[in-house]
Structures
1.
Amino acid sequence: MKRLHLPLLILALAAISLGIFQHKVRNLGFPVLPAQITDNWIVEARVAFEPTGGAVTARMLIPHQPPGFALLDEHFVSRDYGLTTGMTGDNREAIWTTRSPRGRQVVYYRTTVYEITRSLRPSEEYPGPADIPQLEEPYASAASAIVERVRERSADITSFATVLVRDMAHAPDENLALFVTRGGDERERVRAAIQLLAGARIPARMTHGLHLTERARDLQPRAWLEVHNTREWVPINPADGSVGYPANFLVWWYGDQDPLELSRARNAQVSFAVTRNFQSAVDAAQQRALLLDSRIADFSLLGLPIQTQNMYRVLLMVPVGAMIIVLLRNVVGFQTFGTFMPVLIALSFRETELLGGVILFTLIVSLGLAIRFYLEHLKLLLVPRLAAVVIVVVMLMLMLSIVSHHLGIEHGLAVALFPMVILAMTIERMSIVWEEHGAADAIRQGVGSMGAAIVGYLLMINPYLEHLIFVFPELLLLVLAVTLLLGRYTGYRLSELIRFRALSGRSGP
Amino acid sequence: MKWFITPRELRRLGIVGMNQRNTGMIARLNHRRNYPLVDDKLLTKKLALDAGIAVPELYGVIETNHDARHLPDLIAGHEDFVIKPAHGSGGNGILVITGRMGERFRKASGLLEEIDSLEHHVSNILSGMYSLGGQPDKAMIEYRVKFDPLFADVSFQGVPDIRTVVYRGYPVMAMVRLPTRGSDGKANLHQGAVGAGIDIATGVTGHGVWHNDIVERHPDTGAGIAGIAIPGWDRLLELAAGCYELTELGYLGVDVVLDRDLGPLILELNARPGLAVQIANGVGLSTSIDRIEAQKPKNPPSPAERAAFVQALIGAEPGVRS
């Protein structure tokens, strides 16, 4: 059990981490890559009318599980109105009521929708074959002739509907001409198609939807045809018979009816407006998680104030940097001053940028080292000497900032972001190593620290990594697992392959 | 020589790497509570004296900056001496004075220093500059070992010492560490000293390792390193093995110096001995350790028995030596 303890712990941490990660990616749609944008549409229905006196009721049909879309949020803008929503048949409706309004009234319904690949709408059962409509002559014989002709050229319900609609649109013979009036609107054509389909006992219905386009005002709802192929409702374009809804077509309501029904009011006017809304995928996922009532989103960093978020964007990279240090020290065999000093230096490189940071760091450390060697001659006690080094480092930073500002090198100003105490400790340690082990050792360790800081920096500025850790902080558990795993690494360090090279080719025991 | 060695070859030679040393040896065999026994050289000295193990004589201890005034009193009457931190590590902060020149003191390197400079060194030691973790420390002033002329040809100033790695009381591997010009009289390999492997069974030196490279001759004196027989080797191994009882550290480095007059003296103990001893001997630690683990006697034998056991074990297999 004792032997298994650590492996089990590592497995558990990794499993939890990857489990939450996978759930957030798969089910909540959190983006794995940074700066992913999802399309949102904000659709607004404006309902205006004039009351004729007395209590007014306005019933407006609103979208319900439209195919290919999901509703992100809904707002009902209506002052002094009571509001209820409910289902009537296939449709959902919003019912605004008020007692005695005066003057022209306007209420709004606004929803944000986004495209989804799977439909939220459960597939509806086959309503049974349609009743054959009772038609008078010459319509009855014309209808049966049309059905006969279309049936010859079609294979199934969907193709029947397609052929019929195409005939109606393109080549109306004298039989079809009875049903289709030239220049008639879409609704009439769909109505006629439903009638003719019923002649073939095919259940069909009319739907109304909006073609979402960028910044459209006064959008007209379009009528569409749906036939049931005994498994599901299949949309048919009433203009050319093509199957399926076009992209960005939002089905608003079903049935051959107007979307608005008023009592004690007149001059009703319904207009639709659309704007496209680019929202970062993270925000969209966040809202989605709320819709799905997912607890996980509650614990997200994204709920924090922006300033705190930005701080954590940086702070969350420190564990990654620490893991890199573990790798560099225990697996590669880098020698560094202070265990995590390179991580802190790497953090400040974020502000100064790499080249500027390396130059400034080298400059300050070398100047500080020179002064530290002078202090050595003064025979000071340890703590006063350390304090003196800190003071000198701050003055050096100040000087570098002023000089570089005068030279017009703005990068030099960023020197103030270096952690000065860390710098002072680095200088102190380096000078001791220099004295004790010689310049070669000191420079080797200095270069090692710098190398570790550069590697750490390059990883820590990686936008993909930063995004991953920030949006999926549970991945830190994985970082922890890897670190624990490395904690048991007893193999050789890469540097030891060089250190022990003198033994190569030696006969073993 | 290739510029690297494959991990496979390292494993075949039984080389212990840094990570394995830290977890498999130090963390497993050395209890943290026993560290003070070796980290505090004053304490080690006291334990060794109690156990009847020979150590260099202590002239005095300076514990506070105030006491540093007494430094001239403490060193009065001693022509030569060593100032070292009680909690030093890696041989840092050890100042060796080999003689006097009027008011001034001659360092091992031959340079002269004022008394001020010595006092500053003491104050550095007290402030914790050389101690592990920067803790305030004590300065020890002790007998400077007059080293046995045995190694005179193969060392450049300083004190050559014999490092023995003791695994659970069994002295598994040893090397002699020879100061060079570059190591400033110090006998630490990472400071530039030469390490020469010693045949555990016979006490005869082999080739040397200098800056991780194999050398046959001392870089400063040019004298051959191999083939020097250490007198009283059995006694020395027994001394090293006995340090296990002193500290109960399962992975221990014992540094012994050969004094011209006093014979082998324990200079210091190390709870984290380095791995260079493997290069000096051309063989890995785990080879010997595995064999000791497999064949060691059940009931705990005395230090002398353990030393003899290892000598018999290693000596029985010629060809291990390089």
2.
Amino acid sequence: MKTRRIVVPLAAGCLALAACSGGGDDDTAGTGPEAAGWHDEIEGGPLEVGVLSAEGTPGLGILRELADGLQADYEGTDVTLTFANTDARPGIEQRWRSGDPLDVDYGMFDGTNPALTVWADDGALLDLRPYLEQDDPDTGEPWLDRFSPAVLEFMENPSDGGIYGVPSELSLHVLFYNAGLFTELGIEPPRTWDDLLAANTALQAGGVDPIAVTGLFEPYMGMWSDHLWLRTVGYDKARAVLTGGEGHITEDPGFLEGLEMLQQLRDDDAFLTGFEGTDFTAAQAQFFQGDAGMILMGSWLVSEMADVIPADFELGVVAFPTVEGGAGDQGAVMAAPQVISIAAESEHIPLALEWARRLTSVETQTRRAEEIGEVSAVADVPSPPGIPGIDQVIADAESLEPRDYGITQSPAMEVIYPEIARLLFGEQDAQQTLERLDEGLRRVHGN
Amino acid sequence: MHRAAQRRIIIPFLLPALLLLGVFFLYPLVRTVDISFTEWTRTGSSSYVGVENYTRLFDDPGYVNALKNAFLFTLVGGCMLFPVAIAIAWALNQRIHGERFFRFVVFAPVVLSAAVVALMWKFVYHPTLGLINPALEGLGLGALARTWLGDASTALPAVAFTTVWHGIGIWVVLLSAGFERLPPDVLEAGRIDGAGEWRLFRSVMLPMMRDLFRILVVLWIVQSMQAFAFVFIMTNGGPYGSTDIVGTLMYRVAFERYEFGYAAAMGVALVVIMLVVTQIVNKVMKRDELQY
Amino acid sequence: MSSSTDVRPAPAAGPPTPPTARRRGRGGGRRRGSDRAPFRRFHLIIYLLLGAFAFSTAGAFAWVFNVSMKTNNEFIGTRPWTIAEDWRWENYSDAWSAANVGSFFGNSVIVSVSATVLGVVLAAFAAYPLARVPFRGSGVVLSVFLLGLMVPWMVTFIPLYMTMQDLGLLDSRLGLALVYATYNLPFNVFVLVGFMRTLPGELEEAAAVDGAGPVRTFLRVILPLMGPGLASVSIISFLQNWNEFFYALVLIHSPERMTLPLGLFQLGQAADYGTNWVTLFAGMMITVVPVLLVFALLQNQVTKGLTAGALKG
């Protein structure tokens, strides 16, 4: 596909050098250096790297040390770390569109999400496969072999088989529980749905709300329906219906089953008192304060809350409970790797590759696991000690499935999560929810 | 005679402002309209789709809901804002003790960022850790306790209240400058005639400030119809769309779904709607001469 | 301020009363006693209303300050309303460096001040003919300005970005200041038109009789009477420019040209995704103080100073 920019930049108007740098010579676009021996081609130069960690956080500290190392090893290197997360994305992506991309950036590619393969399809990203297949100078093995095979589908573009990103970390969606409280009340960690219901009852008997959740951020409530449908419907089927527009939600009984299980939690008053008006920071804090026994959240929860977790808090994690007799995937874990990509137009591709190589080295990944609690997608990296049990979750996972079926980046978002919220808030029961979902999905998918 | 001389200054006086407006606003606006007739991909490629984005708008219950909520937000917020702002501005122009202090204090919240103010009010509204529900229970009014932001019937007013609390200083500054501009001899004459302050306020001050009021109401409508920050931070449109306004919807369409063409159409349609509404308000609030 | 109505001229020109002597003293000395109205019963309601508002504001600032003195653990771990256990001034030094206050502050001052001055001056000139010189098309021009307030940034920022790129103004403080000034204009014009229309129509005639040309009339007669209005729009423009975040985020990407809200944004992100709330609150206090000072200055000097000073000359 050819990009048509609405307006061709006027070269004469480019007084601000920064605005034009990197955008320039189109003849270099898309063609990186020879794959063999790319490592010998590294030359120092300016490198702008997108980062997800804000100023003043430990995560940024590690990246800054990585940048210092690169600057020390290659003369003339000047690494700029540009914040490229969430609210900064609109500006960053506009720079990509205008031919002034960052050399290395997050969030530009996800092979499992059609909304996120467009940059690769348009030739904006460097195909990393040739470089990943070269032997790593440190280990003597192909760089690609470092990564867990489970994340390959996130890195690979289904349309051309190219690899357009490498994961710097992995977020797994897991059920956190207050292990100290569970021991005290004699509750087993919930492996199955029946365990979960039993745990709810026991926690309530102990005077604790079972499950912390926020009512002010719908995708976090939607995590519950996402996971239930994973178990009662299965990933591929659910994805096809919810975001793919193939078939209808009424056709697979698993959808209603999942909604009914969610309704049961609501009817049992399993959610934190006042969750409807509690924002996610407060909900998470209340979990760590012992107001609630469990919370379903991404593995980032621990690094996010690191500062405020009480010293004596005992944390445990399990995979989302299995549903006996459920028609879906019982061993699947929902995950989202954070993938970095390299601009095809970057003027310092070998240097950018070296950044990616160092960031995904066992050494750096181990530091990130130990110091900031990130789960790594690189083999031989220990799981973060701050999340006891996560290693078991990873070992037991039969597959990693992309979180949220791509709902948040599709028009189905306007339909699905609001209806789940209505169900949780007691506005409607499971059957009504299904009907409204059916109506809404038929509308947005036009089927 | 001086009218003719005056006419010579029209263009030179207007030109610099219009030039800036043309380059940095009108020209981008024209391009936005252009985009609204296309289907934009995330990478910036576009194809012309005609009015499809506009026809789609009116079948989109999300947009209709967002418009409805935007009107509601404007109305509810306006009812919270104007009576209080006018009362405060008027009070500040009465010769009261500590007027300088009060003036400062009313303005002060404006300087806090929306992020910090929103966070504070989220805590104030918090159902169990907050200030409102425990206070209500303490007063024996526990039945009035709500989950505020988590209740579809109270969330919008709650966010509107926060917005008004944060921004009221600006309106007070403007209104109070309006009160200050009133000719003192007229008021003095009224007082000498034995008119009470309420009477003066109603029959002298309000009519004299009619133009300013009209402008401020129009400004409020235009501003609140595009409100974004507090809703985005406090409820992000929830619970289930009950606080979703055009600003938050456009943000999602543009930056989560990357449908810029559609988002641009939403924006352009909003502009047209606001133009119509402000014209109507202008007509309604204008009784006297026809100036614009 | 508002109370010293005696410093303003009678509307139809005529020799203005000289402004009150320098009001430097505190308390009662600031004003002549007779200025203050005798207590009336409805004043009670005023005090109640203002008192409630003052209480909420004071409470809010006290809360922000209190949180800025806590540890994150305290903030999240205890009820949000408890008093900080210890005074942790180091939060302020953390915020100072994390938000890059040292280097961003200067950019914020340069951009906000120049944009405010430009936006207010151009708006004052533009507002005058719109408010007081009837001409064909004045309604249309005013509508164009009004339109400037109506367009949501979420959808115009891409074309604006492209325009700035074409002009070579991306990633420059000049570009940002011009954009800010432009987006101040409609509001300023609109408000100033409102104020100018409240002035009595005989002003120009009187000036013309005295032989003053229209430019001189505007500068010498109209502008001085606009003191409170100009001060208001200056305060509001400055505030908007000082706090503006989105255009700064999109149009600036070199750290050496960034403004304070971008630093505060970093702190906000550290709070959202790392619960580092206390630094955000300390950063908030740091960035708020200059604005409060500007307001206090403008409120006490400009509002009166402009009116009184201009009348003297």
